[in-house]
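Exercise 7b. Backbone tokens:
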């Protein structure tokens, strides 16, 4: 038997209703705020991610699926969407000229991480990116969208963590203070943190290893070091959130694992996912467009992992079932009921039928399995008496109607 590689999943039809419910809910919320879909490539030149995410990040240095094409160029399966959207935005001058530009995307991402619950090597994200304004309103807008999506998906018990990691200039001062604090402690810390000390010191705050938890406790917070401009921006975002009733917790240690962030960083976290606590994350990245060769363009965005949302949602979420399961007793009754199908679907009602089974018991069993809201029954007795029966599959209530008034019945259902 052939098998799929580790950390990669098939999504069978029994998961699709819930899966599409997530995607449709996100797309609905994005369109409410005028974000329009962009389809970005699954493969990019490796440079897009190395430059965008940062060569010293875990994602770029350890987790990318990178290979050479036949022409010897280095290509990578996208580990996230932001760098690709920025590349597309800069490469396509048309969009680059618009003032505020809003995109959303969805699709597979690839990271060679150690697979576990909620952590896959091929996973799916939806995300949104806004280009062209440094206004704190937009930080609020992207956070609000994710909060709305979470509530619409009925996700409970989550926390929104928010921080500001300042801009290029003010962060430098903080990094010096942070390095001075960590320098004498490095001997007891992990190998990765010793590397981070030189290459990416902010990430010292992000280490989850036990050996590094103790030193982190007394590390200086960035809050006291960011400049007035960054600080005002941060307070305005929090003010917007507070005024619109979006609960948040300030977390001065929230630095994120991608290098492009400036000012706002945020994560939606829960303790229901085991080792993986974030189901959505993002922030502002005001320097990335310029880094990709575009003109200086502030930007902000976020992405959420569909598999993680899936795990957090109720089992039957999004499950709507079909409107009518058609039940017959074979031969003549099958002909009569089949002739009604075009009429039923012309009212935008969904149906299913089993033409091979003639026993009512087996057909009702199937109606239940297909989550039918109603069973529409026309057996030999009904044909003889010119009637049809509708059973409400939830309450069990049955009603009898005249077959020659079938259209009238359908119209009354639509009104209800
Ligand atoms: P990220 O935090 O790397 O950010 O990923 C965002 C979300 O993708 C995570 O919160 C998680 O739900 C999901 N995710 C990440 N890795 C995995 C995995 N191995 N298995 C399953 N789910 C995963 C970004 O990707 C940024 N591009 C977000 C962003 C957009 N920032 C600004 N704009």
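Sequence design result:
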């Amino acid at each position: 038997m052939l098998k799929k590689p580790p950390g990669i999943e098939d999504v069978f039809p029994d998961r699709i209703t819930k899966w599409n419910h997530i995607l449709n809910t996100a797309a609905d919320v994005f369109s409410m705020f005028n974000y329009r879909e962009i389809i970005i490539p699954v493969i990019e030149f490796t440079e897009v991610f190395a430059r965008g995410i940062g060569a010293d990040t875990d994602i770029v240095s350890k987790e990318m699926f990178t290979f050479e094409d036949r022409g010897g160029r280095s290509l990578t399966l996208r580990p996230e969407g932001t760098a690709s959207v920025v590349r597309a935005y800069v490469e396509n001058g048309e969009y680059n000229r618009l003032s505020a530009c809003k995109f959303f995307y969805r699709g597979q991402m690839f990271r060679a991480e150690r697979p576990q619950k909620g952590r896959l090597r091929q996973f799916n994200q939806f995300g949104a990116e806004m280009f062209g304004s440094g206004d704190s309103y937009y930080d609020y807008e992207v956070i609000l969208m994710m909060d709305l999506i979470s509530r619409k998906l009925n996700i409970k018990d989550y926390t929104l963590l928010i921080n500001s990691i300042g801009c290029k200039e003010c962060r430098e001062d903080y990094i010096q203070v942070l390095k001075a604090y960590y320098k004498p402690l490095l001997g007891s810390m992990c190998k990765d943190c010793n590397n981070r000390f030189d290459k990416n010191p902010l990430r010292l705050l992000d280490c989850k290893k036990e050996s590094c938890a103790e030193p982190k406790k007394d590390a200086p917070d960035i809050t006291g070091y960011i400049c007035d401009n960054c600080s005002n921006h941060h307070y305005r975002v929090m003010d917007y959130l507070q005024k619109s009733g979006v609960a948040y917790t300030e977390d001065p240690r929230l630095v994120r694992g991608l290098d492009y962030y400036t000012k706002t960083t945020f994560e939606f976290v829960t303790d229901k996912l085991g080792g993986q606590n974030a189901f959505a994350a993002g922030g502002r990245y005001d320097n990335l467009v310029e880094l990709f060769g575009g003109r200086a363009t502030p930007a902000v965005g976020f992405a959420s992992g569909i598999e993680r949302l899936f795990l957090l949602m109720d089992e039957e979420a999004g499950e709507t079932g079909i409107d009518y399961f058609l039940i017959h007793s074979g031969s003549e009754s099958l002909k009569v009921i089949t002739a009604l199908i075009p009429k039923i679907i012309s009212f935008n009602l969904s149906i299913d039928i089993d033409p091979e089974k003639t026993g009512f018991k087996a057909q009702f069993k199937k109606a239940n399995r297909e989550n039918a809201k109603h069973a529409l029954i026309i057996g030999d007795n009904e044909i003889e008496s010119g009637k049809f029966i509708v059973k409400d599959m939830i309450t069990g209530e049955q009603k009898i109607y005249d077959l020659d008034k079938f259209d009238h019945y359908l119209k009354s259902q639509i009104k209800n």
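Instructor comment: The chain has a mean pLDDT of 93. The chain has two domains: 13-170+226-312, 324-415.
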